[in-house]
Amino acid sequence: MTDAAPGDAGTPLAIDIISDAVCPWCFIGKRRLEAALCSLPDVPVELRWRPFQLDATIPEGGIPREQYLLRKFGPERVKDMYARLSAVGEEAGIPFAFEKIMRSPNTIDAHRVIRWAAAEGRQGEAVERLFQSYFIEGGDIGDRDLLAQAAGDCGLDAGAIRARLSTDTDVAGVKDEIVAAQRVGVTGVPFFILGGRFAVSGAQPAEQLAMAIEKAARAMFDNAEIENA
Fold it and tell me: Residue 132, exposed/middle/buried by CB under 10 A (0-12, 13-18, 19+)?
Protein backbone atom coordinates (compact mmCIF):
# COMPACT_ATOMS: atom_id res chain seq x y z
CA MET A 1 0.00 0.00 0.00
CA THR A 2 1.23 3.48 -0.80
CA ASP A 3 1.11 6.45 1.54
CA ALA A 4 -2.22 7.53 0.03
CA ALA A 5 -5.42 5.60 -0.31
CA PRO A 6 -7.42 5.78 -3.53
CA GLY A 7 -10.06 8.46 -3.57
CA ASP A 8 -11.21 11.63 -5.24
CA ALA A 9 -9.19 14.78 -5.77
CA GLY A 10 -10.28 16.27 -2.46
CA THR A 11 -8.01 17.21 0.38
CA PRO A 12 -6.71 14.01 1.97
CA LEU A 13 -7.30 13.23 5.61
CA ALA A 14 -3.99 13.34 7.48
CA ILE A 15 -3.41 10.25 9.61
CA ASP A 16 -0.44 10.48 11.96
CA ILE A 17 0.69 7.07 13.18
CA ILE A 18 2.91 7.27 16.25
CA SER A 19 4.85 4.03 16.51
CA ASP A 20 8.11 2.30 17.30
CA ALA A 21 9.90 0.00 14.89
CA VAL A 22 10.30 -2.70 17.57
CA CYS A 23 6.65 -2.67 18.64
CA PRO A 24 4.82 -5.81 17.46
CA TRP A 25 1.44 -4.21 18.08
CA CYS A 26 2.48 -1.37 15.76
CA PHE A 27 3.09 -3.91 12.99
CA ILE A 28 -0.32 -5.41 13.68
CA GLY A 29 -1.81 -1.90 13.78
CA LYS A 30 -0.32 -1.19 10.36
CA ARG A 31 -2.02 -4.25 8.89
CA ARG A 32 -5.32 -3.33 10.49
CA LEU A 33 -5.05 0.25 9.23
CA GLU A 34 -4.41 -1.07 5.72
CA ALA A 35 -7.52 -3.23 5.98
CA ALA A 36 -9.55 -0.26 7.23
CA LEU A 37 -8.41 1.91 4.33
CA CYS A 38 -9.20 -0.82 1.81
CA SER A 39 -12.79 -0.69 3.07
CA LEU A 40 -12.87 3.09 2.49
CA PRO A 41 -11.76 3.53 -1.14
CA ASP A 42 -13.47 6.92 -1.44
CA VAL A 43 -11.62 8.47 1.49
CA PRO A 44 -8.29 9.97 0.40
CA VAL A 45 -5.68 9.90 3.15
CA GLU A 46 -2.13 10.98 3.81
CA LEU A 47 -0.25 8.66 6.17
CA ARG A 48 2.50 10.20 8.28
CA TRP A 49 4.60 7.93 10.48
CA ARG A 50 5.81 9.58 13.69
CA PRO A 51 8.50 8.30 16.07
CA PHE A 52 8.20 6.89 19.56
CA GLN A 53 10.50 4.82 21.76
CA LEU A 54 9.13 2.11 23.98
CA ASP A 55 12.43 2.06 25.85
CA ALA A 56 14.82 4.98 25.36
CA THR A 57 17.22 3.52 27.94
CA ILE A 58 18.49 0.86 25.53
CA PRO A 59 22.04 1.90 24.65
CA GLU A 60 23.38 2.50 21.17
CA GLY A 61 24.31 -0.90 19.82
CA GLY A 62 21.43 -2.55 21.67
CA ILE A 63 21.48 -5.41 24.16
CA PRO A 64 20.88 -9.17 23.86
CA ARG A 65 17.16 -9.74 23.29
CA GLU A 66 16.75 -12.62 25.74
CA GLN A 67 18.54 -10.74 28.49
CA TYR A 68 16.37 -7.67 27.90
CA LEU A 69 13.06 -9.53 27.89
CA LEU A 70 13.82 -11.68 30.90
CA ARG A 71 14.89 -8.64 32.88
CA LYS A 72 11.82 -6.64 31.89
CA PHE A 73 9.06 -9.26 31.92
CA GLY A 74 10.27 -12.58 33.29
CA PRO A 75 10.21 -15.95 31.46
CA GLU A 76 6.55 -16.89 31.92
CA ARG A 77 5.20 -13.52 30.83
CA VAL A 78 7.45 -13.50 27.76
CA LYS A 79 6.16 -16.94 26.76
CA ASP A 80 2.54 -15.83 27.14
CA MET A 81 3.18 -12.58 25.26
CA TYR A 82 4.78 -14.35 22.30
CA ALA A 83 1.94 -16.90 22.13
CA ARG A 84 -0.71 -14.19 22.06
CA LEU A 85 1.17 -12.02 19.56
CA SER A 86 1.81 -14.98 17.27
CA ALA A 87 -1.90 -15.81 17.23
CA VAL A 88 -2.97 -12.21 16.56
CA GLY A 89 -0.20 -11.83 14.00
CA GLU A 90 -1.38 -14.89 12.13
CA GLU A 91 -4.85 -13.36 11.88
CA ALA A 92 -3.29 -10.18 10.48
CA GLY A 93 -1.09 -12.09 8.02
CA ILE A 94 2.16 -11.52 9.92
CA PRO A 95 4.36 -14.60 10.46
CA PHE A 96 6.15 -13.35 13.56
CA ALA A 97 9.49 -15.13 14.07
CA PHE A 98 10.41 -13.97 17.56
CA GLU A 99 12.94 -16.79 17.93
CA LYS A 100 15.11 -15.14 15.26
CA ILE A 101 15.46 -11.84 17.12
CA MET A 102 18.83 -11.74 18.85
CA ARG A 103 19.10 -8.09 19.89
CA SER A 104 16.85 -5.37 21.28
CA PRO A 105 18.03 -2.20 19.53
CA ASN A 106 17.83 1.47 20.27
CA THR A 107 15.51 2.75 17.53
CA ILE A 108 16.61 6.36 17.06
CA ASP A 109 18.51 5.48 13.88
CA ALA A 110 15.57 3.50 12.52
CA HIS A 111 13.34 6.51 13.06
CA ARG A 112 15.86 8.71 11.27
CA VAL A 113 15.67 6.43 8.22
CA ILE A 114 11.87 6.55 8.32
CA ARG A 115 12.03 10.35 8.45
CA TRP A 116 14.41 10.53 5.47
CA ALA A 117 12.24 8.10 3.52
CA ALA A 118 9.31 10.49 3.95
CA ALA A 119 11.21 13.16 2.02
CA GLU A 120 11.46 10.70 -0.89
CA GLY A 121 7.80 9.67 -0.74
CA ARG A 122 8.76 6.19 0.48
CA GLN A 123 7.96 6.36 4.17
CA GLY A 124 5.36 3.61 4.10
CA GLU A 125 7.76 1.28 2.32
CA ALA A 126 10.51 2.02 4.85
CA VAL A 127 8.24 1.34 7.82
CA GLU A 128 7.11 -1.95 6.27
CA ARG A 129 10.67 -3.00 5.43
CA LEU A 130 11.90 -2.34 8.97
CA PHE A 131 9.00 -4.23 10.53
CA GLN A 132 9.66 -7.20 8.26
CA SER A 133 13.40 -7.06 8.85
CA TYR A 134 12.99 -7.14 12.63
CA PHE A 135 9.96 -9.32 13.26
CA ILE A 136 10.14 -11.79 10.37
CA GLU A 137 13.85 -11.92 9.49
CA GLY A 138 15.27 -11.23 12.96
CA GLY A 139 17.50 -8.42 11.71
CA ASP A 140 19.22 -5.99 14.07
CA ILE A 141 17.59 -2.72 13.03
CA GLY A 142 19.99 -0.85 15.27
CA ASP A 143 22.83 -1.82 12.94
CA ARG A 144 23.56 1.02 10.54
CA ASP A 145 24.71 -1.21 7.70
CA LEU A 146 21.45 -3.15 7.90
CA LEU A 147 19.46 0.09 8.03
CA ALA A 148 21.24 1.37 4.92
CA GLN A 149 20.52 -1.88 3.11
CA ALA A 150 16.87 -1.71 4.15
CA ALA A 151 16.69 1.84 2.83
CA GLY A 152 18.19 0.64 -0.44
CA ASP A 153 15.53 -2.07 -0.64
CA CYS A 154 12.97 0.74 -0.58
CA GLY A 155 14.57 2.62 -3.47
CA LEU A 156 16.63 5.05 -1.42
CA ASP A 157 20.34 5.66 -1.90
CA ALA A 158 21.86 3.16 0.53
CA GLY A 159 25.29 4.78 0.45
CA ALA A 160 23.89 8.23 1.20
CA ILE A 161 21.75 6.85 4.02
CA ARG A 162 24.76 5.06 5.53
CA ALA A 163 26.78 8.26 5.40
CA ARG A 164 24.03 10.27 7.07
CA LEU A 165 23.66 7.64 9.80
CA SER A 166 27.30 8.21 10.72
CA THR A 167 26.40 11.79 11.64
CA ASP A 168 23.93 13.18 14.19
CA THR A 169 21.63 14.53 11.47
CA ASP A 170 18.02 14.65 12.70
CA VAL A 171 18.76 12.91 16.01
CA ALA A 172 17.51 15.98 17.86
CA GLY A 173 14.50 16.28 15.55
CA VAL A 174 13.43 12.69 16.16
CA LYS A 175 13.82 13.09 19.92
CA ASP A 176 11.83 16.33 19.83
CA GLU A 177 8.96 14.55 18.08
CA ILE A 178 8.98 11.82 20.71
CA VAL A 179 8.83 14.41 23.49
CA ALA A 180 6.00 16.20 21.69
CA ALA A 181 4.02 12.95 21.54
CA GLN A 182 4.56 12.37 25.23
CA ARG A 183 3.42 15.90 26.02
CA VAL A 184 0.05 15.31 24.37
CA GLY A 185 -0.42 12.17 26.44
CA VAL A 186 0.92 9.36 24.27
CA THR A 187 2.23 6.65 26.57
CA GLY A 188 1.81 3.61 24.35
CA VAL A 189 1.82 2.80 20.66
CA PRO A 190 0.43 2.52 18.07
CA PHE A 191 -1.42 5.78 18.47
CA PHE A 192 -3.38 7.25 15.58
CA ILE A 193 -4.25 10.95 15.21
CA LEU A 194 -6.90 11.52 12.55
CA GLY A 195 -7.14 14.92 10.93
CA GLY A 196 -5.35 16.46 13.87
CA ARG A 197 -8.53 16.15 15.94
CA PHE A 198 -9.45 12.54 16.71
CA ALA A 199 -7.26 10.00 18.49
CA VAL A 200 -7.33 6.21 18.45
CA SER A 201 -5.07 4.40 20.89
CA GLY A 202 -3.83 0.88 20.28
CA ALA A 203 -4.05 -1.63 17.44
CA GLN A 204 -7.83 -1.50 17.24
CA PRO A 205 -9.72 -3.85 14.89
CA ALA A 206 -9.97 -2.67 11.28
CA GLU A 207 -13.70 -2.07 11.62
CA GLN A 208 -13.22 0.34 14.51
CA LEU A 209 -10.41 2.15 12.72
CA ALA A 210 -12.60 2.49 9.64
CA MET A 211 -15.42 4.03 11.68
CA ALA A 212 -13.03 6.51 13.29
CA ILE A 213 -11.53 7.45 9.91
CA GLU A 214 -15.00 7.98 8.44
CA LYS A 215 -15.93 10.20 11.37
CA ALA A 216 -12.76 12.28 11.00
CA ALA A 217 -13.20 12.58 7.23
CA ARG A 218 -16.83 13.67 7.65
CA ALA A 219 -15.82 16.30 10.22
CA MET A 220 -13.13 17.62 7.88
CA PHE A 221 -15.62 17.81 5.00
CA ASP A 222 -18.24 19.53 7.15
CA ASN A 223 -15.70 22.12 8.31
CA ALA A 224 -14.65 22.77 4.72
CA GLU A 225 -18.26 23.37 3.72
CA ILE A 226 -18.70 25.85 6.58
CA GLU A 227 -15.53 27.71 5.61
CA ASN A 228 -16.60 27.92 1.97
CA ALA A 229 -20.16 29.01 2.75
Answer: middle
- pLDDT tens, position by position, 92-118: 999 999 999 999 999 999 999 999 999
- Contacts of residue 14, defined as CB under 8 A and 6 or more positions apart, other chains included, come to 45, 46, 48, 194, 195, 196
The answer to whether the pTM exceeds 0.90 is yes
Domains of the chain: 16-228 (3.40.30.10)
Three-state DSSP state, 46 = strand
Q: What is the pLDDT of residues 125-156, one digit of tens each?
A: 999 999 999 999 999 999 999 999 999 999 99
Specify whether the CB–CB gap between 189 and 52 falls below 8 A. Answer: yes
Residue 207: count of CB within 10 angstroms of its CB: 12
